[in-house]
Amino acid sequence: MDVVLREVHDSDLPVFFRQMNDPEALHMAAFTPKDPADRDAFEAHWKRIRATGDVLRTVLLDGDVVGSAAVYGDPDEREVTYWVDRAYWGRGVATAALRALLAEVPERPLYARAAADNAASRRVLEKCGFRLTARATGFANARSEEIDEVVLTLQA
Q1: 93 near 66, Cβ under 8 Å?
Q2: Which residue, 12, 23, 137, 155, shows the most beta carbons closer than 10 Å to its own?
Q3: Are 85 and 68 in contact (CB under 8 A)?
Q4: Is the pTM of this model over 0.90?
């Protein structure tokens, strides 16, 4: 299994859009756009974030686009995020992608958030050195309700 990161290409966006419209993946991610099927909003979001200078990467598995990973936000509150196509869950792809991203971005601390019931995402983060530092609640668009979330931190 060869997991690598590269810059986001325009040709990756249709793959990301398809991935972000998988109902099971949306439920697990929970904190998603209000209407993930709104293609115009999706395009506008990616245009805006690609112009920010944040670290945005495409995740490749054996040369195929299988997801995305990013570090974004204000300098003192940088967060990581990642998305891996559900077809590749449970194979170590997210962990390998996050490790590669963390090697590329040396700044610390970094933060991550996940739905409290998303044990798989929490395991990925903990394998990469993140530790639980807080609990919160937030409105999860994909579930149309307030849910519990966990905040994890990666220190120096």
Answers
A1: yes
A2: 12
A3: no
A4: yes
